[in-house]
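pinned: reference chain
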Amino acid sequence: MSNINKSILRTALMLSYVIIIGLVVYGIASIYSYLNTGADRSKMLHTEVKKVEQYLPQLQWQPLTNEGRPMDQQTLKAIETDYLDAWYIKQVAYKTNTTEGITDYYTESSRENLYNIIHLNTESNTTIDATTLSHNPKLDFFSEDGQLAVLTDYDVVEYKRVFKDNMLIFDATEISDYRVTFLLEDGFWRIRHMVKLESRPFENQTTQDTLKLKIKGINYYPQATAWDMYGDNFNTDTIAKDFKIIKSANLNSIRVFIPYESFGKANVDATKLDQVKQLLDLAKAEDLKVLITLFDFYGDYSVLDWTLTQQHAKKVVTALKDHDALLGWDIKNEPNLDFESRGKSLVTAWLDKMIDFIKSVDNNHPVTIGWSNIESGEILKDKLDFISFHYYENLDNLSKAYTNLKSKIKNKPIVITEYGMSSYSGFWKPFGPSKDDQAEYHKKIQSTFAEEDIPFMSWTLYDFSKIPKEVVGRLPWRKNAQKHFGFINENGIKKPSFKYISSKE
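pinned: its structure tokens
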């Protein structure tokens, strides 16, 4: 009896072993088959994490009319993702002269060329800082076994900066066409060949838009939430009340700001964007026009960041461009202050491409840049629809400086979009200007505006009780002075300067 039981047990164990081996073989076969369909390996292993959005150029597939096997949208998306990641990895490699990540996106044969370029650049102390801003791929061929794909990428807008011994020696924007062959290896669509078919200089055809309003305006933040008016702090009752004050003061426009980082960068916060729409609605109710300043507190400008900033601009501009209260776009507040830390050529190049991009999304509203001084007013003047600058200097020099700039820019409006005087004369500045001095300042500058026919936007409606360190730093004498530029104090009482908040015409 015991021998029979042992035989049954032995048979059961052998059958269990066979079943387990069969399941393992089946699992391996399933995994192999899954990977070779272009599947997402991270989802298969349940290790997926939110992809870091590091490279988001504009991309538009042409209709699928390829030879060979039809391609489904999932596989097309997998090719798109690996293709853009391959561009990003290559650009990081050329910028840093390192090879990290190349094996994931390029086959063995195509890596050799990349390695050779990196080796030569390292030896000559050369680096390339580059990005692509748009792609228009067309799938030409997809093999029957699903292992090979060929596409042609048309009108790829490329920007590059070449450095030798850490000195910029060359920068250019060009449009190129590429033929790209992919192989599916280990779940990656790796590039086997990438050949540049043609390249030509980039010539963007931007249209000019006229500023249709004689601006008499003011920069606006609510008194209690300066530089932080959206999100939980957004209050339509407060804004509506303030807009009535602005309208009754004989002003016709306001300038507001959209912070890049707190609005979500490339993933724009839909709630905050809706709050901007509500602000525009409230402005329309008072017949006020709104100049929207983009990219507030942005200061990176790195070339590899450009596709993210363009995604941000696309979402914001697309959402707001059809609103009746929109006056126009101020691309960046005082970007010339970043010239020293980031380099004038880099900042200017970013601005130049952003002008083109915003106009490609909205060709019905004028575009400007809020320069921090009048001397910068000529930068990119041929591409801007109107020129704007800020003036906090000696009023005795304003008329001459404005006339001089106008003689160089004859066919476009020139607007002063910030000016003002602080009335702070407290502990940190005991001999500073008084409220009466501030009133005299505004009386005088309004007289100059009238004489020279200068459009204007003052800084700002209210005194503020809190100033973020990002605005003027941490030094108390600077922060306290910044608190007292308003026409209305923090208790809601109009200061003497309010009498001159606008001309009386």
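why pinned: Residues 31-51 have pLDDT under 50 and may be disordered. The two ends are 116 Å apart (CA to CA).
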